[in-house]
Amino acid sequence: MQNIDKAAHVYKELLELVGEDTERDGLKDTPMRAAKAMAFLTKGYEQDLQTVTKWLSSRI
User: Fold this and answer.
1) Which domain holds residue 51?
2) Does the pLDDT of residue 16 top 90, yes or no?
3) pTM higher than 0.85, yes or no?
């Protein structure tokens, strides 16, 4: 979870760099949402083929 918090901080800084007000209602949760989305999209980098294969074979 610590990496997600760090990533959310970076996303917040990026939004601020492009001139966005990160405290407005529409953007308050955006940095954390973006960090969680990136964690989900890249979670495969932390998995090994054997684990994924076992999971898939149990679903067939």
Assistant:
1) 2-59
2) yes
3) no
Residue 1 has pLDDT above 80, yes or no: no
Max distance between CA atoms of the chain, in angstroms, equals: 49
d(CA 20, CA 7): 17
Q: Which of 22, 25, 12, 28 is closest to 4 using CA atoms?
A: 12
56 SS3 class: helix
- Going by C-alpha positions, the residue among 24, 22, 1 that lies closest to residue 12 is 22
Residues 32 and 9: beta-carbon distance below 8 Å: no
CATH of the domain at 51: 1.10.286.10
